[in-house]
């Protein structure tokens, strides 16, 4: 069975057994998307309106900006894997509750361990806090973290500001560009 088939099975299984209360208000689950053999996995917080409609992560305005940032380091969406902490859209794009995050946590860990990326990139503070609750995004963004976390094979992490932040704050674009350059440097080192 290929990784793509294994991911498909994993998503079907979890979407049936998952008890997240967001299931009742979301249109559909939004599974991770991209290359199942990727060296880099990007993790966002939760699907938005566009993602809920299409069933794919990061397809709205923030997704377009993410694609632009990937292009700036000579990558395409097809080169990476993109997923979220929570697999269902919270009503009115509110932040997911701790119980909603918890109900999707094992799903995410299984997804990450199946892909086995060399680097996990957090898109925004909510994604980062799911793994490193003690960190502050303003201090941690763009800094490579090496740490062994229980149950997760990957041990390199990079927090970034969420691409949506650059849509609301033009000055954030340059910060994100610099932080994305760290991805390119880091992945070269990790492939050695």
Structural class: alpha/beta
Side-by-side strand order of the widest sheet: 1-3-2-4-6-5
Query: How would you state the average pLDDT, rounded?
Result: 94
| Secondary-structure element pattern, one letter each | HEEHHEHEHHEEHH
Helical residues, percent = 40-55%
CATH architecture: 3-Layer(aba) Sandwich
The major pleated sheet works out as: 6 strands, mixed
List low-confidence stretches.
none
- CATH hierarchy class name: Alpha Beta
Task: Give the count of structural domains.
Answer: 1
Name of the CATH homologous superfamily: Uracil-DNA glycosylase-like domain
Give the number of DSSP strands.
6
Global geometry: globular
Quote the beta fraction: 5-15%
Examine the coordinates and then state which fold CATH places here, giving the name of the CATH topology: Uracil-DNA Glycosylase, subunit E
Output the radius of gyration.
Answer: 15 Å
Distance from N terminus to C terminus (CA atoms, Å) equals: 28 Å
The count of helical stretches stands at: 8
């Amino acid at each position: 069975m290929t990784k793509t088939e294994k991911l498909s099975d994993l998503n079907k299984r979890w979407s049936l057994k998952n008890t997240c209360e967001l299931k009742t208000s979301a249109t559909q689950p939004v599974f991770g998307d991209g290359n199942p053999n990727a060296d880099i996995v990007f993790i966002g917080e939760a699907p938005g309106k566009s993602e809920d409609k299409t069933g794919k992560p990061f397809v709205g305005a923030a997704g377009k900006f993410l694609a632009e940032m990937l292009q700036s380091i000579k990558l395409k969406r097809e080169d990476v894997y993109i997923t979220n902490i929570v697999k269902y859209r919270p009503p009115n794009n509110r932040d997911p509750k701790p119980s909603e995050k918890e109900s999707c946590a094992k799903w995410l860990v299984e997804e990450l361990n199946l892909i086995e990326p060399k680097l996990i990139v957090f898109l925004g503070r909510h994604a980062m806090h799911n793994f490193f609750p003690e960190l502050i995004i303003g201090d941690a963004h763009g800094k490579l973290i090496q740490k062994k976390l229980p149950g997760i094979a990957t041990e390199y992490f990079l927090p970034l500001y969420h691409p949506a932040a650059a849509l609301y704050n033009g000055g954030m674009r340059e910060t994100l560009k610099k932080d994305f350059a760290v991805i390119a440097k880091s992945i070269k080192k990790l492939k050695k």
